[in-house]
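Minutes, project check-in
Item: structure for the 390-residue chain
Input as provided by the requester:
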Amino acid sequence: MRIFFLTYSHEPAIRPDVGGFRKLWELAAALARRGNEPIVFYPRLPGYAPLTSVPSVPYAVLDLWGLRPLTAYLGMLWRAWRESRRRPPSVIYFRSGLNVLPPILGRALGARVVVEVNADVLEFLAGEGAGALTRRLFRWTERLNVRQSDVTVAITPGLRRLVIERYGADPARVWMIPSGTDTAHFAPEDRTGARRRIGMEPDRTVVGFIGLFYRHQGVPTLLEAVARCVSAVPALCLLIVGDGAMRSVWEDLARRLGLSAVTRFVGQVPYAEAPTFLNAMDVAVAPFTRDRGETSPFKVLDALACERPVVASDIPSVRTLAEDSGAVILVPPDDPEALASGICALLADPVRRAALGRRGREFVLARHDWQRIGDRLAHELNGGGVEATR
């Protein structure tokens, strides 16, 4: 099966080897290992390069504000069309966004088109303060892509329901296939060694967050929770890994809460180094805000793969993950007192932390390794069809 993966992702100061951009490379690699023929099309932008060894094709982009998305979509379409002249694809896979060209390309080439819906974009945009016009534009393009594509892949049960109810999609054409993690890359290792490699004292008690710095990540709630934990855990250190628009706001809050001495804002780290930072943590935290909406957070899966116990906000999509894994401690979102209680209870119980860590690792190995996700996608594309609609 020859599959074109069309990728575009660009945000100033955000590394191009994280999150959803990386996901399509991992899916392509998993499919290639089973004898399929994926090709990843990616933007020729500073810092962007192949992330796995699968065949790939860069396309031209004008790296100018306001022109990047339009020229990326046109460049992607042109390069995919040229590549199809050698041999057309049987499937075109892309992530939902403002690009409405993949269904047109698929129809012209006689290929099945798969659009992935990986978040409630309208709720995300509202939470980030986007205007009504922007929200209407995204709703219109997503509706068009869902209606014009042959299949929609939703990464959570909630997103599957949303696609069906909001856009009137045919339930038989909406598959629920979750996100995953690289369990060989995100693997457990000795905390002492991990801490030494990142310049931390081995005897500290470390609570950590890793992710992009969007408002919905809820880091202010984490900072306020840690301020409550410091007196009970004198050797506590808060490790915050990532970057983005909210960094200066969150750093200022840490100073105002008197946490400068115990908080380390690391900035973004290369994908290759992310497991080291996770393994340096005693507890990983995903403190999403109440209005986060549907998501399937990579950082939770990555932490579980590293045998790190996770304390997370009790929002619907994370609740499903917690119930299925039995390895995530849920607390009410936007509640520093509850988050502090959850963190401190785990820090006081190393036996429970270890048990949750083992359970989480077993869970992702069984259900969220990229190879399993790729195999499931291939199965459905080859006519499996029933299981993925649940």
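Outcome recorded: The domain at 191-367 is CATH 3.40.50.2000 (Rossmann fold).
No further action items on this chain.
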